[in-house]
Amino acid sequence: MANTSTVAHRIEQLRAEINDYNYRYYVLDEPAVPDAEYDRLFRELQALETQYPDLITPESPTQRVGATGETTFDEVVHRLPMLSLDNAFTDEELKDFDRRVRERLGTDEPVEYVCEPKLDGLAVSLHYENGRLIQAATRGDGYAGEDITANIRTIPSVPLMLRGQGYPNLVEVRGEVYMPRAGFEALNRRLANKGDKTFVNPRNAAAGSLRQKNPKVTARRPLELCGYSVAVVDEGLLPDNHWDCLNLIKDWGFRINPEMRKASGAEECLDAYRSLLDKRATLPYEIDGIVFKVNDFSQQRTLGFISRAPRWAIAQKFPAQEELTTIEDVEFQVGRTGAVTPVARLRPVFVGGVTVSNATLHNMDEIARLDVRIGDTVFVRRAGDVIPQVVKVVLDKRPENARLIERPLHCPVCGSDIVQIEGEVVARCSGGLYCAAQRKEAIKHFASRKAMDIEGLGDKWIDILVEKGMVKTVADLYHLTVVDLQSLERMGEKSARNLVEAIAASRRPQLWRFVYALGIREVGEATAKSLARHYGTLERIAAASDDDLQTVQDVGPIVAGHIQSFFNQSHNKETIDALRSAGVEWQSESVDLAAQPLAGETWVLTGTLSEMTRDEAKEKLESLGAKVAGSVSAKTTSLVAGAAAGSKLTKAESLGVKVLSEQEFITFLETRQQS
Ligand code: IVH
Question: Model pTM?
Answer without folding.
Answer: 0.71
